[in-house]
Amino acid sequence: MTFYPHSVDNTHAGFVVYPPPASPSNLERKNWALIYAKKANFIQNHENILKIISEDFELHGTIADEPEEIVTIGTSIKIHNHGWLNTNDYIHLMQSSKIMIGLGFPYEGQSWKFS
């Protein structure tokens, strides 16, 4: 079931599940933290935690409403923004990252589009 009703009449009953893509056995995880924030305003007021994480990891994200490839927070925090991604590209980005950090409203779904 969904976390919240997605339609006025509450007829939405769940999510579509795709078969998992084949994961290469030699996939090397990069020293990346994938920031899970669909909108730029989800990362507001999280400068302290992002600063701590950025000391050990390169920050990456899929901030859909931010056109810039590098999103700067404060004076020193940089997030490499991948924008909207198709499903396979997003899964590859997740598989390439060492950790994933949810900010804002993360339980509603990833920032990808189906192609």
Q: How would you sum up this structure, described in words?
A:
- The model is unreliable at 111-115 (pLDDT under 50).
- The longest helix has 10 residues, at 87-96.
- It is globular and about 40 Å long.
- Strand 3 (70-73) and strand 4 (77-81) form a beta hairpin.
- It contains two helices and seven strands.
- By secondary structure, the chain is of the alpha/beta class.
- It has helices at 47-54, 87-96, and strands at residues 30-36, 58-61, 70-73, 77-81, 85-86, 97-102, 112-113.
- 16% of the residues lie in helices and 26% in strands.
Q: What helical percentage do the residues reach?
A: 10-25%
In terms of structural class, how would the helical and strand content be classed?
Answer: alpha/beta
Based on CA atoms alone, the radius of gyration comes out at 15 Å
**Arithmetic mean of pLDDT:** 78
Topology, please?
Layout: E1 30-36, H1 47-54, E2 58-61, E3 70-73, E4 77-81, E5 85-86, H2 87-96, E6 97-102, E7 112-113
Parallel strand pairs: 1-2, 1-6, 2-4, 5-7
Antiparallel strand pairs: 3-4
Q: What tags apply to this protein structure?
A:
115 residues; alpha/beta; 2 helices; disordered C terminus
Quick summary of this structure?
This protein has 115 residues and is an alpha/beta fold.
